[in-house]
């Protein structure tokens, strides 16, 4: 892959198979750029101008640069994303046995295109909470990094309606195949020593040992797995597609592509201003959690900083927000050449046509008139083409973290995104040219001297 930025994004996606791993990847990225971690309960009153980050519950991260200028004078530059993607999440009691097969019970997380998950090599990643040999509770991030499951299609000879207005039943048809009982007993004979089927925790513990993943546990072995938050993911590597090598095809582009670009902008821009990058979880299911955009993570962090840095009084939050701008970046809908009628004819973004401004009269997107003006201004300064997406008036539209942030912070906002096809498929498609142009606009924004109109 010749495009260096695209290669970095591919590596980031490969290292981030679950929201937990996404935050771990971001942490490493910011540490390499000499950002210092600050705990949520750490006193920030004495933080000097510099680069910092904080993490909540291993699933949300805020990185920020502090300038010496008073916040109530220059405001704050925000870029917000989310690190979760539609997926298949294992149920607590995940083992489904019949006489011949073992399957995993899964819940559908978010709104994936279900048909895109069939016949793909699926691996497993996420977090385990376990009891060690000293009876201490510990967390462990795991990534099997190899195909352990598949959701096989039924042969068309047995199901002639497969191509005719098919409805997919999430409970019946999305259950992945993991093993045949005969070979499972051969691979893990001790698990069936008492002629009982093993529990999921017993199987995973044994499998970790076989894979030699049970390492770096601070000298403690896993005694018992008590809980898990694991999801399946497509292990196929991203590919460059097209006669001109202009498209990138990959899993979880929504929204790891935006997350990488936002983090990269904060790191490489060398912004002289106080600037924030925030990556949330749970956007795909409504953001209603302590690590979602409707939670208090960002407001808690901001109030600590603003109250400690404001010299005149401790009620400057609104004053700071009035001089600030929040850019919500999440993938945007490119026009599909086979389904042109699904777009408003005057708002038809194309792949490699430039980043997209997203507008909705019912405020499903949070673009304000001031935010739109700033976006067009930054695009002119960066010499980057831009596009606009508005849903057809007779079709509903999705949403982003933008409206929640606008409501919480009372800050000017705008929603933008990289134009994408196959959104919420197991494999999504974006244009390589749009990566650099979007990064250029974000960098220009972070360097902008004044955000006051």
Notes on the structure:
By secondary structure, the chain is α/β, with parallel strands linked by helices. The protein folds into two domains: 4-85 and 251-447, Aminopeptidase, CATH 3.40.630; 87-234, Aminopeptidase i, Domain 2, CATH 2.30.250. 28% of the residues lie in helices and 26% in strands. The chain contains twelve helices and 20 strands. Strand 19 (419-421) and strand 20 form a beta hairpin. The two termini are 42 Å apart. Residues 214-219 have low confidence and may be disordered.
Major beta sheet summary: 9 strands, mixed
**CATH homologous group name of the largest domain:** Zn peptidases
CATH architecture label name of the largest domain: 3-Layer(aba) Sandwich
What count of structural domains?
A: 2
Could you tell me how far the N terminus lies from the C terminus, measured between alpha carbons in angstroms?
Answer: 42 Å
Q: What topology emerges from the helices and strands here?
A:
Elements: H1 4-14, H2 19-32, E1 36-37, E2 50-56, E3 60-66, H3 71-74, E4 77-82, E5 87-97, E6 101-109, E7 122-132, E8 137-143, H4 170-173, E9 177-180, H5 181-187, H6 200-211, E10 222-234, E11 239-241, E12 247-250, H7 253-268, E13 275-280, H8 297-309, H9 317-322, E14 325-329, E15 332-333, E16 356-358, H10 369-382, E17 387-389, H11 402-409, E18 412-417, E19 419-421, E20 428-431, H12 432-447
Parallel strand pairs: 1-2, 4-13, 4-14, 14-18, 15-19, 16-17
Antiparallel strand pairs: 2-3, 3-13, 5-6, 5-10, 6-9, 7-8, 7-10, 11-12, 12-20, 16-18, 19-20
Helix pairs in contact: 2-7, 7-12, 10-12
């Amino acid at each position: 892959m010749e495009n260096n930025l695209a290669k970095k994004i591919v590596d980031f996606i490969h290292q981030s198979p679950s929201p937990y791993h996404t935050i771990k990847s971001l942490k490493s990225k910011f540490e390499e750029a000499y950002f210092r971690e600050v705990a949520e309960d750490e006193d920030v009153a004495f933080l000097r101008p510099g680069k910092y980050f904080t993490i909540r519950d291993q699933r949300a991260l805020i990185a920020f640069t502090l300038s010496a200028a008073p916040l109530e004078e220059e405001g704050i530059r925000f870029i917000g994303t989310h690190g979760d993607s539609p997926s298949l999440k294992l149920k607590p009691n995940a083992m489904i046995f019949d006489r011949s097969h073992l399957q995993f019970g899964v819940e559908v997380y978010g709104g994936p295109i279900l048909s895109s998950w069939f016949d793909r090599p699926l691996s497993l990643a996420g977090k385990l909470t376990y009891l060690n040999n000293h009876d201490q509770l510990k967390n462990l991030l795991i990534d099997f990094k190899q195909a352990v499951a598949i959701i096989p299609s039924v042969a068309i000879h047995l199901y002639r309606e497969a191509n005719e207005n098919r409805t997919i039943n999430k409970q019946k048809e999305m259950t992945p195949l993991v093993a045949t009982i005969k070979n499972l007993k051969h691979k893990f004979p001790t698990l069936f020593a008492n002629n009982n089927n093993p529990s999921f925790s017993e199987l995973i513990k044994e499998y970790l040992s076989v894979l030699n993943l049970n390492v770096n546990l601070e000298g403690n072995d896993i005694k018992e797995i008590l809980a898990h938050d694991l999801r399946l993911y497509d292990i196929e590597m991203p590919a460059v597609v097209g006669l001109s090598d202009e498209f990138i095809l990959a899993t979880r582009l929504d929204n790891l592509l935006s997350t990488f670009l936002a983090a990269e902008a904060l790191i490489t821009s060398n912004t002289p201003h106080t600037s924030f990058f925030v990556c949330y979880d749970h956007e795909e299911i409504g953001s209603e959690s302590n690590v979602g955009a409707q939670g208090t993570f960002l407001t808690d962090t901001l109030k600590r900083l603003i109250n400690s840095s404001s010299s005149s009084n401790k009620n400057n939050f609104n004053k700071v927000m009035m001089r600030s701008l929040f850019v919500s970046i999440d993938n945007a809908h490119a026009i599909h050449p086979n389904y042109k009628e699904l777009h408003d004819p005057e708002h038809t973004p194309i792949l490699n046509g430039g980043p997209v401004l997203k507008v909705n009269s019912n405020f499903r997107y949070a673009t304000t008139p001031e935010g739109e003006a700033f976006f067009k201004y930054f695009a002119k300064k960066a010499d980057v083409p831009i596009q606009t997406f508005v849903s057809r008036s007779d079709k509903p539209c999705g949403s982003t973290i933008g409206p929640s942030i606008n409501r919480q912070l009372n800050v000017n906002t705008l929603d933008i995104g990289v134009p994408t096809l196959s959104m919420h498929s197991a494999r999504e498609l974006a244009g390589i040219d749009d990566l650099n142009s979007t990064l250029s606009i974000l960098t220009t924004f972070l360097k902008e001297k004044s955000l006051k109109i």
